[in-house]
Amino acid sequence: MKNKPVNQMRLEIESKSINEGFARYAVSAFAAQLDPTIEELADLRCAVSEAVTNAIIHGYRGTSGTVYITAKYYEDRTVKIKVADKGVGIEDIKQAMQPLFTTDPSGERGGMGFAVMQSFTDKLAVRSKPGKGTTVTMTKKFAPRD
Amino acid sequence: MLTADIKIEYDAQSQTLTLIITGEIDHHSVGRLREQADRELAVRRPKELVIDVSGVTFMDSSGLGFILGRYGKAEPLGATTTVKGASPLIHRILRLSGADTFVKVLK
């Protein structure tokens, strides 16, 4: 399916909530190089926002750390985005990905982060090791442009 | 700037509390929105809660949590919750969680 990416970028941000907006803008600005539709870009921005927020809230639990974001796109207009943290990791990935499941004690998180990521991208892969960190990889293929 | 802002209006006649949100609702901005909204909800104890999102330029599941949380505060007061001005993206997120089965969602 994919060979070498046409273009790629790497971003490292501090795990501060104020960086969530910056991260989604940076990724969507990069993906905009493919001239996607507004809806496609909005979907991607939303998915990235969820992944970055998860890294900050759950991965690092509000402590300081680095969120590593890489974005690549390919000839066939596929965009691949990786959001990684070196935080606490996920004990049970299947459980974590269940809609409405949340480990947030405040009762204010919807537990829909993964569901949104899954719905707004074509493919979602989650790798995690408790105590080591989590990597979320999202793939989205933009429709062809004339 | 880009981050979410909230304007609160109360109509004493209809006992409707309207939360007008503009900008981007994400994890970073939602706490502030929640504080102000809950303060008004506690004081006004309205019959109807309207969350106007027509000026919201971005929302992820933090916004969903905000809407569900406010519904959670309005419901025990006997108030109905309506989301007004939902864009297709916001509509989709609400539908994903099933929130649109107990919160009225209007375009």
Please name the defining characteristics of this protein.
heterodimer; A: 146 residues; alpha+beta; Heat Shock Protein 90; 5-stranded antiparallel sheet; 4 helices; 5 strands; 27% strand; B: 107 residues; alpha/beta
> Number of DSSP strands of chain B?
5
Helix content of chain A: 25-40%
Strand count, sense and closure of the main sheet of chain A?
5 strands, antiparallel
What is the CATH homologous superfamily assignment of chain A? Histidine kinase-like ATPase, C-terminal domain
Q: What is the quaternary state of this protein? A: heterodimer
Distance between the termini of chain B: 25 Å
- Can you name the CATH architecture of chain B? 2-Layer Sandwich
Strand arrangement within the widest β-sheet of chain B reads 1-2-3-4-5
Runs of chain A in which pLDDT lies below 50 for 5 or more consecutive residues are none
- Say how many strands of chain A there are: 5
Radius of gyration from the alpha-carbon trace of chain B, in angstroms: 12 Å
Structural class of chain A: alpha+beta
Brief summary:
The complex is a heterodimer of chains A (146) and B (107). By secondary structure, chain A is an alpha+beta fold.
